[in-house]
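Priority: medium. Attachment 1 of 2:
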């Protein structure tokens, strides 16, 4: 009694109504859990240590960036909820079937990267707890262990993971641990003065915060397609991600100041009962890697629709594990920025096409139509949005998130109006 039957592998086909079981609270739990993790704490540490921002400015940027990023994430998820399709398939009406293959390939590349980074930070945390059991190879052993766990979570699928794992165990353990870490942090004095900060640093910090929820946009409909209602999917996603993202980014920024290092794993380990706290966070961290592996498999089914998810997921897991043993964590900041450069304009275009050009309604036949091949207007708008991001971020140094989104949105909207006329 109470057990959910293992759902079938739903790839690019719309999820039937009887499998859209996730309520608003289920979606809230899922996105809260995904925005809780060691990697988010590490991103928060970049603000106060990597960019040397005062804690006051960091906190303000964290709140603003979390709200903006989570709102966009939730709105993207509405498309998947409405039609029961995964994110890469939801891009077919705007980019075309074959046109959607380009963001699909980029998405798979970034998901392999995210999985690798998750395995790295989980291996680092587990090694800190266990000590050098196998000398220099201890961390690699833990990476392989967590890779196996996350792969089998992917095989079970999101309904089982959310209802039977996150809601009953993992999230509550993680929240209790987070409260303990928060309590430990407030015992230390933190400088709350404002001081003088350059606009370029603030915009770059905003990019780093927004990058985290935006990094989930290519995945959001892979899970929100199981939501029972559009409203529930939107509210659960927005509130869940905003709540936890603000909390964890802020904790990461504070931990970096208290510990004097960007490595939040060692900062937590130095606390009272720090190793226990790390272990509890590791329990919940696995769902992030699970989501990356599952979505990489679902995304590739947009191209190879006849391949089974368990087989694609196995390939993704093995590739990510191999990369994890050879990738330095110092590349993390630039990895976040590259994600933003690739996908912010993609969803600027998707926003325009769905909410403005088509007024919030698609013909469901366009998702699987073989005649809907490539929309070159979308491709050109994407390229211009990418160039905009690169120019504002790397040439001017003012941050490219907002300019990139606006550029892609405006160019596509204007072009479609001309074509329609």
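Attachment 2 of 2:
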């Amino acid at each position: 009694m109470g057990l959910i039957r293992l759902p079938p592998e739903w790839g690019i086909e719309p999820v039937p109504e009887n499998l859209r079981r996730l309520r608003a609270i289920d979606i809230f739990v899922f996105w809260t859990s995904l925005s809780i993790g060691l990697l988010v704490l590490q991103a928060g540490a970049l603000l106060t240590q990597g960019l040397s921002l005062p804690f006051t400015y960091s906190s303000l940027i964290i709140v603003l960036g979390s709200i903006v990023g989570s709102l966009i994430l939730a709105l993207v998820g509405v498309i998947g909820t409405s039609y029961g399709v995964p994110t890469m398939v939801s891009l077919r009406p705007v980019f075309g079937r074959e046109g959607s293959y380009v963001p699909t390939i980029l998405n798979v590349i970034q998901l392999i990267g995210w999985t690798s980074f998750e395995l790295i930070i989980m291996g680092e945390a587990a090694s800190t707890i266990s000590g050098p059991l196998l000398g220099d190879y201890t961390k690699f052993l833990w990476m392989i262990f967590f890779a196996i766990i996350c792969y089998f979570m992917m095989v079970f699928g999101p309904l089982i993971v959310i209802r039977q794992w996150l809601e009953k165990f993992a999230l509550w353990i993680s929240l209790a641990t987070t409260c303990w870490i928060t309590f430990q942090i407030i015992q230390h004095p933190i400088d709350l003065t404002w001081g003088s900060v350059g606009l370029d640093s603030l915009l770059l910090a905003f990019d780093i915060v927004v990058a985290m929820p935006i990094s989930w946009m290519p995945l959001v409909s892979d899970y929100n397609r199981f939501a029972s209602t559009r409203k529930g999917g939107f509210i659960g996603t927005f509130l869940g991600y905003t709540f936890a993202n603000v909390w964890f980014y802020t904790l990461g920024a504070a931990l970096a100041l208290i510990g004097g290092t960007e490595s939040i794993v060692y900062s937590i380990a130095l606390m009272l009962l720090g190793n226990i706290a790390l272990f509890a966070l590791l329990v919940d961290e696995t769902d992030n890697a699970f989501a990356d592996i599952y979505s990489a498999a679902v995304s590739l089914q947009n191209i190879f629709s006849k391949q089974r998810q368990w087989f694609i997921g196995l390939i993704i897991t093995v590739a990510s594990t191999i990369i994890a043993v050879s990738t330095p964590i110092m590349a993390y900041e630039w990895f976040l920025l590259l994600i933003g450069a690739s996908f912010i304009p993609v969803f600027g275009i998707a926003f325009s096409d769905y909410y403005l050009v088509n007024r919030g309604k698609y013909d469901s036949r366009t998702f699987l139509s073989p005649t809907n091949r490539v929309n070159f207007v979308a491709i050109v708008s994407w390229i211009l949005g990418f160039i905009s991001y690169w120019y504002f971020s790397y040439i001017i140094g003012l941050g490219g998130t907002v300019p990139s989104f606006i550029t892609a949105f405006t160019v596509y909207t204007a072009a479609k109006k001309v074509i329609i006329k």
